[in-house]
Amino acid sequence: MQELSVEHLLGIKYLKPNDIDVIFKTADHFKEVINRPIKKVPSLRDITIANLFFENSTRTKLSFELAEKRLSADVINFSAGQSSVKKGETLIDTVNNILSMKVDIVVMRHGNVGAGVFLSKHVNAKIINAGDGTHEHPTQALLDSYSIREKLGTVKGKKIVIVGDVLHSRVALSNIFALKLQGATVKVCGPTTLIPKYISSLGVEVETNLKKALEWCDVANVLRVQHERMDIKYFPSTREYTQLFGINQEILDNLGKKIVIMHPGPINRGVEITSDVADSSESIILNQVENGVAVRMAVIYLLAQQIKR
Amino acid sequence: MSRKTLLNSKDIEIILHRLACQLIENHNDFSNTVLIGLQPRGTFLAERLAELLKTAYNIKELELGLLDITFYRDDFRRKDKPLAAETTQMNFLIEDKKVVIIDDVLFSGRSIRAALTAIQSYGRPKSIELLVLIDRRFSRHLPIQPNYRGRQVDAINEEKVLVTWKKTHKKDAVYIESKA
């Protein structure tokens, strides 16, 4: 019951529904732990974890580091910007050097799709994918589903719309897998240029009218416009994007019902979402951040459980 | 598998009253004391004692917590089966409080060691005492002894002490089970 069916967390598509149940039940316990006066347990005091971030990250890296420290693991951090990667060292060489320091778990973010899978085949450590290019970001999807479950009681049967830059978003893909696995109905909404052509093959409908999408849904998961991943212009101007796909309080007030607003962060305030919506009572953005630590503690704890001494 | 009854429901009833009286001797009205049952099995004993203290001995304000120690155990990754956590319900701080840890059977002492660490997450208590229904002598791995014990038992390591409760098994009883 309390065991994962996978050896690594490389993506949601490798998980079974029971894995998500196990992670969430374990996260419930860690949520209680992180609300204690002393928010630390000694479970992983003989485990060493390397956070390898070949791409920039603030909240994911901080969230993982906090989760690891609250489990009492030893943590080493690596950022590609200040490393020998700049001198031409390969991924395998970098990781093998780090593993020679007796690392048990590697948390890796990398710009290339499939970097985590590649690593899992070549190194003897548990791998947690903290984002591989535009592919998957499994812990973000897990914490998003966990936050929906916390807010609405269940994910099953809920209608969720993912709004914005789906094409460049690893959060969107992992969320689609996670939400479908738990029995939710998912739509995506955004400019057609930012919706991947294969999306319908994942059992997801496309809606290009934001108002209709919001009227339909229980939850709107709003994505950041990822200018840094855009090699061409996907929409005429930021102003036009905001007018067509930006969510403001007026749009929500006109719905005649309450919907839950989520955002994986960081927010482009005033672009995909206005400040009053981001800070409103309908927004669970800060709950997502808090739940991120508990869910990552659960994932690390469950994978560490498989490491026998 | 052979099973021998060590305590029947009448014995347990008498022991519970004696333990309740011993607690009152040391903790008076429990205004500065909290009872903490260890998950999973110590909670049944803790709940029964708390109920008895309230109904039979008129203790009005009694704080009872249920503590899970899974994340503090020293056998994480050493067992064949993964350790599953139970719910912790500690809706109070124990800063400067007298704490009574309650468990059904004291065996190696490792669970109590874990509980002593876990309790520190809720503050610095004034003192910590240990109450157990069954104290298995000569089986300790750590220098831990109870302040209150229901019954002391000499059981060999291959034997298992099984406690059943009315609430969960329809019968209050303590058995010694052996494979022979």
TrEMBL record, chain A:
Pathway: Pyrimidine metabolism; UMP biosynthesis via de novo pathway; (S)-dihydroorotate from bicarbonate: step 2/3. Residues 156-302 form the Aspartate/ornithine carbamoyltransferase Asp/Orn-binding domain. Coiled coil: none annotated. The lineage of its organism: Bacteria, Pseudomonadati, Bacteroidota, Flavobacteriia, Flavobacteriales. Carbamoyl phosphate binds at R59, T60, R109, H137, Q140, G265, P266. Catalyzes the condensation of carbamoyl phosphate and aspartate to form carbamoyl aspartate and inorganic phosphate, the committed step in the de novo pyrimidine nucleotide biosynthesis pathway. Keywords: Pyrimidine biosynthesis, Transferase. The keyword Heme does not apply. It catalyses: carbamoyl phosphate + L-aspartate = N-carbamoyl-L-aspartate + phosphate + H(+). InterPro entries: Asp/Orn_carbamoyltranf_P-bd, Asp/Orn_carbamoylTrfase, Asp/Orn_carbamoylTrfase_sf, Asp_carbamoyltransf, Asp_carbamoyltransf_Asp/Orn-bd. The keyword Phosphoprotein does not apply. It comes from the Bacteria. Its EC number is 2.1.3.2. Heterododecamer (2C3:3R2) of six catalytic PyrB chains organized as two trimers (C3), and six regulatory PyrI chains organized as three dimers (R2). L-aspartate binds at K87, R170, R224. This is Aspartate carbamoyltransferase. Belongs to the aspartate/ornithine carbamoyltransferase superfamily. ATCase family. Gene3D superfamilies: Aspartate/ornithine carbamoyltransferase. It is an enzyme of class 2 (transferase). It holds the Pfam family OTCace_N. PROSITE patterns: CARBAMOYLTRANSFERASE (PS00097). Residues 8-150 form the Aspartate/ornithine carbamoyltransferase carbamoyl-P binding domain. Signal peptide: none annotated. One of its GO terms (molecular function) is aspartate carbamoyltransferase activity.
TrEMBL record, chain B:
Its EC number is 2.4.2.9. InterPro entries: PRTase-like (IPR029057), PRTase_dom (IPR000836), PyrR_bifunctional (IPR050137). Keywords: Glycosyltransferase, Transferase. One of its GO terms (molecular function) is uracil phosphoribosyltransferase activity. It is an enzyme of class 2 (transferase). The keyword Transferase applies. Residues 3-154 form the Phosphoribosyltransferase domain. Coiled coil: none annotated. PANTHER family: BIFUNCTIONAL PROTEIN PYRR. This is Bifunctional pyr operon transcriptional regulator/uracil phosphoribosyltransferase PyrR. The gene is pyrR.
